[in-house]
Amino acid sequence: MRIAYKLAYVGTNFHGFQYQPNVRTVVGEIYKTLKSLGIDYKRTKLRCAGRTDAGVHAFGQVIAINLEKPIFPRVFNAHLPEDVTFWAWCEVDNDFNPRKAKSRTYMYVMPAEGYDISAMRKASKLLLGTHDFSNFTKKFGERRCIRTIYNVELRLDGDFIVFEIVGNAFTWNMVRCIASALSEVGSGYRSVEWFRDLLNPEKYRERVEPAPAYGLILKDVEYEDVEFEVDEYAWKTLMQRIKEIVRFHGTIYKLFSQLKPLSDQD
Hints:
It contains 6 helices and 10 strands, in the order E-H-E-E-H-E-E-H-E-E-E-H-H-E-E-H. It is an alpha+beta fold. The N and C termini lie far apart (69 Å).
């Protein structure tokens, strides 16, 4: 049988999702877990919804593997490190490929730093619809990158800007490049018209460097006719781990935010 799982991970200490020898990756940890459960990972035909880069996080990443019998998400969690958590599952067709999704949702968060939120919102709305995102990809200039964006949202949340985007698919570094371009508009270095031109690479070519990986999370992946069942015990584990992460990093953020720069001291 083939089982699809939803999993979350903190990408900080990973060299990306995909397996690489001699470095720590998410798939590498999954392979170790399968081995500890007496399963030959080479026979599982593991596939994923998206190969996130080094430092990128996920909340709703999806993988599918072949198993002789179902394994609860909580069982995987007992063998996985705390920065990877399985939390939902579903039996799927034998030919199910997680990459063939209906939609993917990414979220990027950046410090507000006095950005012009109105200008950033205007620019972000230009993303809606089908465009060639060649200017927003790491493989700049190699080929056309046609993608369809269903929804975008950009909001101010305390000291941070939250950018959320939903599309049928995303090319390499696409969301991080979009976030970088939006920050250029928000800072006033570039205009909304420049952002519009980036969406027309046949007439205007410019490489956009990606924003830092730590601000990006793969929030969710959706499919036609696939209903995931949440493992309640695994979900509680995930919520507890998220709470601990927020407490740890929130404390550090608050601690250093209380310090004055030397130029402000008497």
